[in-house]
Amino acid sequence: MEDDTLIHLIDSIMSTHQYSRYEASKADKTWEIIIGFAIPIIAFVAYIWYKNWKIRIWRKGTFPADLTFTTGNLMEAYSCLTVYLITIDRYHQMQKIAYLRSFFIRQFKGSPDHFDDTIDRNFHYPIEPVSVITWVNKHAREQQKKQLIQFLVGLCHIDKLLKPKEYTALKVFTKQLELEASFLDECIRFYRQEKTTNTNNQERKHTVFGSTGISQRTKYATILGIGENASENEIKQRYRQLVKRYHPDRYVNESEEQQKQATQRFLEIQEAYEFLLSGK
What is the pLDDT of residue 124? Predict the structure, then answer.
């Protein structure tokens, strides 16, 4: 009798222990499920907060002085100054943006993530160029400063003509970067000679081989940010992306200047698209 009671007691203890283990296992699984759902939600909220925080910083119109000197932040500085010079001369905007992208790919082995979004943000919330130059001047070496001026001079010469306002801005940038004025003049002479040489070569090519349209195709492919040999589907896909981004209807609540910029970019995209699809 006593043995049966002891066995029954042991069974009860074991059952209770197994039940406790089962309940603990259920609780662990419940927490695993909660954590599994919570982590993506927390990550998404953190991303939205970070994105909004970053936008608020740039909306101030000043390049953050406390940014560390990284390749990504240096590319951001290039983007801000490119947009500033585009606002001085709105023509050939898409070519200038494409020139910036190709420079990033060539010099930094790739363009930054969300390149188009960065350019759009800089158009909507222009950054004071003096703050950009101050940041570059604080962190960059002399060779990096010279490279920046060379890039900006090349950017201004895309249309083969350096405007007075562009030249004034370049002189200010050169002075603030503590570079010699003669270096700027040397860069300008170089690009003028290069444009003259390229023009003469192109004229000779057309004289000998006829008007092949190759230079035009290169120009328009650059505007859309695609390769010369892009397929029709690639051309259409890129066109849809750019039209959606730069359609003037998106800028109806923006300033008159920004509306003009959007219209100019939209027309350049349209012209490039029609030319490339024509197969010329």
Answer: 84
